[in-house]
Design goal:
70% helix; Amino acid/polyamine transporter I; mainly alpha
């Protein structure tokens, strides 16, 4: 009994600093600069993709500011799930927890697919017949290795992410400097490739449609909140790491668009599997080709690694509160990780990575993320209304409230319409799924929730209640 009691009180280890938070946020997202974003070019052309990049940048800046305030105050595992639990209510919390798990697990699957595709591309360049290499063993190996790394401890996991994310980001900068004409003649042909009908082939409707995949430039930066219970100083590390991450990604996204749109026609760029690697191949430099190949591989691994970390924390937090079976709320007594949640989500990621096309997987991830972003304006408005600034201490106070909340809500509505234009069936199916599981939670699962233990913040009574 003494041993069981000791195990029950083992918690997550507070070992992370601001650099780890930056590595978690940017590491998850940077793969979006290496693949996926370019589908927005296919939706509306190169200029539409650039406008989608900047509009999505505004959306995620609002997300980062709102998240930084609430998470630096609600510093617990689960991120937005825990915020919803304390501020809105149990049903919203259950849905937000599922949004998080699906968004990150689908993104993990997309990264594994890209990793396998990259291995096949390298094999083809080495003389193998295109498509002859079986990608499945590499997909399985990547997911299993990263799950093992997460199982063994969060400090090693995110230190690994910090190193490979820094290398992948450096590769983007080096590609831009090598092709921009600063040091040598530039191979970029923007005037030729983006003139006439190629500029905006589908007009302003194409700009709207491009918002669908424009989110891929930044999708996942909000995952920094999942580490709230494992950072040494949440009030300092979370806002700094998240906001620095958004600025890093805005720079990387713009440079990526500039290089790729100057080397490839929009018709090819809009369906390319690994556009930055293709850009390096077209530059004519063997060094750039090798460096960007390594960068693409590191970006996919860093993203999948961060996704396993974030999805498992959300699943673990829901299990700890009995929103899911309490079995998932266990912490490893030695490694201090939510090991059961990590193990449980591995086969789900493998099913989608091995059995679904990448655009569908990306769309499911985007839709789950988009539902989560739509919750955030409601969350911050209720947070400020129930607990005004002077009532509780906050680690960070985001400026211009409530303007970021309304801007975020408007951009989310626009993106929902953009997704509906191309993937209406998937949008309706996913919303129907969340309605069904909400009914299941309300009529069955909520009876098992540990209601007295789920509210852990020492806050005063909400204003008006």
């Amino acid at each position: 009994m003494a041993q069981a009691q000791t195990t029950e009180h083992v918690g997550l280890a507070r070992v992370l600093g601001p650099a780890h938070i930056w590595a978690l946020g940017v590491g998850i997202v940077l793969v979006g600069e290496y693949m996926g974003w370019n589908f927005s070019v296919g939706k509306g052309g190169a200029y539409a993709a650039l406008m989608a990049c900047w509009f999505a940048g505004i959306l995620y800046t609002c997300v980062a500011m709102i998240d930084s305030e609430v998470t630096s105050t609600v510093a617990a595992a689960g991120g937005q799930y825990t915020q919803a639990k304390h501020i809105v209510g149990p049903l919203m919390a259950f849905n937000v927890g599922l949004y998080l798990v699906f968004a990150y697990t689908m993104l993990e699957a997309a990264n594994a697919i890209t990793f396998g595709f990259l291995i096949d591309t390298v094999a083809t360049m080495s003389g193998h017949e295109a498509g002859s290499l079986d990608q499945r063993p590499f997909i399985i190996l990547a997911i299993m290795f990263l799950a093992w790394l997460n199982y063994r401890g969060v400090l090693a996991t995110l230190t690994f992410n910090l190193v490979i994310t820094a290398i992948a980001f450096t590769a983007v900068i080096v590609l831009f400097l090598s092709t921009s004409g600063i040091f040598t003649d530039s191979p970029l042909r923007h005037t030729e490739l983006m003139s006439g009908p190629a500029a905006m082939p589908y007009g302003w409707l194409g700009v709207l449609a491009a918002m669908h995949f424009g989110l891929w430039y930044y999708l996942g930066i909000e995952g920094t909140t999942q580490a709230a219970e494992e950072v040494r100083s949440p009030a300092r590390s979370l806002p700094f790491g998240t906001l620095a991450g958004v600025m890093t990604l805005a720079i990387a996204a713009t440079l990526t668009w500039y290089v790729c749109s100057g080397l490839m026609p929009w018709e090819y760029l809009g369906q390319a599997g690994v556009p930055l690697f293709d850009a390096a191949r077209l530059s004519g430099s063997t060094f750039l080709m090798v460096f960007l190949g390594i960068g693409t591989m590191f970006a996919t691994l860093a993203s999948a690694n961060g996704c396993i970390n974030d999805a498992s924390r959300a699943w673990f937090a829901m299990g700890r509160d009995r929103y899911l079976p309490g079995w998932f709320g266990a912490v490893h007594p030695r490694y201090r990780t939510p090991y059961r949640a990590i193990i449980f989500l591995v086969p789900i990621a493998l099913i989608f990575a091995l059995g679904a096309p990448i655009d569908q997987v990306i769309t499911f991830s985007i839709l789950s993320g988009l539902l989560e972003y739509t919750f955030m304006p409601l969350n911050i408005i209720l947070f400020r209304r129930k607990w005004p600034l002077e009532s509780i201490n906050r680690g960070y106070e985001h400026p211009f409230h409530p303007l970021p909340a309304y801007v975020l809500l408007g951009l989310c509505g626009m993106t929902f319409f953009a997704v509906f234009l191309g993937y209406g069936t998937q949008l309706v199916a996913m919303i129907a799924f969340y309605i069904v599981v909400s009914l299941w939670f309300h009529f069955w699962r909520y009876r098992f929730v540990n209601r007295g233990a789920q509210f852990t913040m020492p806050w005063p009574k909400p204003r008006g209640y």
